[in-house]
Amino acid sequence: MAFLQQFALLLALLIIFSTSCKTAMLEVDSAEVGLNYSLKSSATENISTSTNDSTGGHGSSTITTLPIVIWKWHHVETPYLVALWILTCWLCKLVAELNHNITSVIPESGLLIMMGFILGGIVWGADKAQTFKLIPVNFFYYLLPQIVLDASYCMPNKLFFSNLGAILVHAVIGTCWNAGTVGIALWGCYEGGAMGNLNIGLLQFLLFGALMSAVDPVAVIAVFEEVHVNEVLYILVFGESLLNDGVTVVLYNVFDAFVSLGGPKINAAEIIKGIISFFVVSFGGSFLGVVFAVLISMLTRVTKNVQVIEAGFIIVLGYLSYLTAEMLSLSAILSITFCGVCCQKYITANMDEKSVTTLRYVLKVMANGSETMIFVFLGLSAIDQNIWVWNTGFILLTILFIVIFRFMGVFFLNWLLNQSRLIPIDLTDQFVMGYGGLRGAVAYGLAASLDEKKIPEKNLMLGTTLIVVYFTVILQGITMKPLVQWLKVKKATQSDLTLNGKMNNRVFEHVLTAMEDICGRMGDNWWTRHWNYFEDKYVCWLLMTSDARKHKDPIFGVFHKLNLEDAKKYVNEGESKGSLAFIRNYDNASVDFKKQLALEYADIMPDIMNDMSEYDFGIDNVPVTSVMKNPLPSVSLNVHELDRKSMLNDLSAHHLLDQHLYKSRRDNRPTYSRSHYNTSENPDEMQEIFQRTMRSRLESFKSAKMGVNPAKKLSKHPKKDSTHKPNGKPADPHRTHPYGDEDFEFSADSASSSEIAGHFPRRNTNAPGAGVDNPTANNMAVAPSQTAQGRLPWTPTNLRHLAPLRMSTRSTDSFAMADASVDDEAPEEKSGSHHTRL
Amino acid sequence: MGSTNSTLLKIPNVEVLMQETGFSPAHIIRLHDRFKALDKEGRGHLCPHDFGAIKELAMNPIGDRIIGAFFSPGKETVDFHTFVKILAHFRPVDKDRPKEPNSPEPINSRSNKLKFAFQLYDQDKDGKISRDELLQVLRAMLGMQVTDEQLESIADRTIQEADLDRDDTISFEEFRKACKHKRFTMFRFCIRPGERKLMLTLCHWSSELQDQHEL
């Protein structure tokens, strides 16, 4: 079966792919399809004959008769192809991820490149030419930014900043080292005659070295996440590869300028200018990113009213920071990196929790999507004939040098860093760091954007870059995991989130700063502390809303998170145990369940939390035997362990549960809102309306009962009994009263408002049947729960097993709270139907 | 190195001290200088108000407790030996030190570090962290940001997490267990070879990884 499924998927992929190929083949001459917008528009001019008959429909030519439908391929051609290609690439990922046995051996990025090979082969077979390729403009403007933004936004902030020094050393010095040594070594070998006759000078070699030094974050992270290496190693490699991209681009631009300048014109002044430009571009870009981070953070302070697009602001502003840096010829990658890293904390605090989740997911979707496309297109690029200028010496030496010099650089810099590092980076970690120097799309993008006029051997360089990318991503990617296991690299430790841990951490931080003070040295903690102080006092004031400031304390955050988790777990547990647990023990269980909901509520809503503070006391999986300050034993996952509870608490729990149920019922109502996805933002208001209506209804009912109604009821009574007895309903006096009332209610209600039927499907089948005394209705099954039926629509469907509980005497508690009346069924029924009409 | 030796000679029992604490002569001298600087009146011992004079320490929310940790119960002063011994808690755990079966546990062992941390909570020295003690620490650290009710809930939950025997207090054993497998920052007092500075650094993530190996 699994195979069949995979096969079907593969088939679907092929079909879609062939569609995109076919559509592309319609215009033979277009060299660059797929993502190439700019060329696309010009390519549309070349309409092949096969589409002539169809495209004639929308041409400017006079039409003889009114066409019913028109084939308008060229109207949609570009976006259509782009969409098809995106779909194809994503399906590739789907296919690649189908078998976990394969993905555990070959990293996903490698698999995607291989899929790209296959697709490229098909294109080749069909076209005998490369019809699709990734052009640098699209790569740098439309595919790369979201990857970098996602990576920087999801960067573990604290870890990143505490290792920033090491990361910068590796990213800046390491990259320069790689670029310089690879370039010079290749040049030396060339001069030595190892690669035959090529038209490359030293500067071109250096330029090539610069573009080859880009360690790809995507490929590296994909591999490292798979193997779960320890945090320090992870952040070093991740941070390095991310910043390294920016540095590489800067370095590339500097060398590119040198190449344009030409050898003879370069003197000491130009070189110094180059070095200055390197630093200005890098730090300027980073600074710009920080400025944008501040802007974003300040903006999210005031976006409360447009929550729907809140997440969009971050993406747009992040992208703008990229483009602005590009415009100012600063480092765009560094800009967006620092933008993401710096704003992360503040926007998470400022934005609504939903927006944060949205942002995270949207970024992930975009980043993963473009990542997939990049790798597939990298594979696809292999079919380009032009780039395959084979030079064995050049290619092999390049691979050799990038590996050797990477290792040398990493070992040397780590040795340097270890002199001052408290916990040295050990040798295996260093080795993995060196081995993790995978080259990826950035190198390819830079190589592709080389100018053929300035660099005659562009195609050789491009081809070599592609081979290096394939070599590192596929070969090193595959061997990375076994290597990490073989070297016994320290893996990341899974640790639970606990209050103790958080609190102890905090205490120790204070202790350490105090010890530094006592010893009279400004150590790391001094800086940390002073930064924290500064941040608390000024930065947070500037960038955070006052609400967020209040709740930003990590200890409180952990507490909140743990509570939410427990509540969720508890509800899930209750559901998965199913009705069994509840039926067996329903008195306690129901109350317990409700209380848990109340607890969840108390956590979500601070204002309730205040007056319900005794509730969030004992939320824990561990049953607490001791009774502390409140008489309630804590909520326990084990429903059997519950003791009797005090009536008052029960009532408030019921009350809260009712609130909750009303809320979810409202959510079930099919509504659409352009700007909000939950319509009942304020259940309190609804509750208020509900209670008020209920009370007024109750009053009217009472008066009716006292005055007019009894007569009516008496007259109805016999009729009711006679009709319901065949249905097997017990006609006890307690029952008949609600029935009569329900009938009364319905004759009034259902006649006046037909939409009840729409909102109450359940009632539509059963209750009206009873109401109009229709004996044919299948009341048999539902008859015993008739009293519950009236209220069932409020329960979310997954709580249905609670329904029978309503039959128990305790169930009356829920509205004993709301109204003190004895006539519990009737007002509930009434107000319910009234409620829906609100 | 003449000056080094002369300074060292001024300190009584310096060899014993070095052996107990594991500090190098350079560290001892550096600490001695600092000790003298703190001891403004030159009495040869420090009083609580000497610590209080450190401006940054006054800002520390749990500064009082930390100062208190230097003074054994009933004592109003701390001499240089005790001072160094307290600071020795913060030296990194020696991994290379050969394990001699009959030698006393070094001050910078993991459990001694934990004991030091534990007594910061346990102010009444009954070997247990009670709810009130925890509440005090939390209140000091969280300050105005949370309400009293929330603070109490947090304290209760924290106790529940660690409390294994359900006596509503955290004993040292429980404290040690809570710190064992949790995200836990071990503190070290780390001195690089050849470096005269005392370096006290918080090793955030890396340290816990190391601790995994030390256990």
Automatic annotation (TrEMBL), chain A:
GO BP: any one term: regulation of intracellular pH
Lipid bilayer topology: Multi-pass membrane protein
Segments for region (Disordered): 662-685, 700-838
Chain intervals with Basic and acidic residues compositional bias: 731-740
Taxonomic superkingdom: Eukaryota
Endpoints of the signal sequence: 1-23
Name of the protein this chain belongs to: Sodium/hydrogen exchanger
TrEMBL record, chain B:
Record GO terms (molecular function): calcium ion binding
A GO biological process held by the record: protein transport
Cited InterPro entries: Calcineurin_B_homologous (IPR051875), EF-hand-dom_pair (IPR011992), EF_Hand_1_Ca_BS (IPR018247), EF_hand_dom (IPR002048)
CDD domains, sorted: EFh (cd00051)
UniProt keyword annotations, A-Z: Calcium, Cell membrane, Cytoplasm, Lipoprotein, Membrane, Metal-binding, Myristate, Nucleus, Phosphoprotein, Protein transport, Repeat, Transport
Compartments (UniProt record): Cell membrane; Cytoplasm; Nucleus
Domain EF-hand: 109-144, 150-185
One Pfam entry name: EF-hand_7
Entries under SMART domains matching the protein: EFh
GO-annotated cellular components: cytoplasm; nucleus; plasma membrane
Family of this protein: Belongs to the calcineurin regulatory subunit family. CHP subfamily.
Identification of the protein by name: Calcineurin-like EF-hand protein 2
Record organism: Cyprinus carpio carpio
High-level lineage: Eukaryota, Metazoa, Chordata, Craniata, Vertebrata
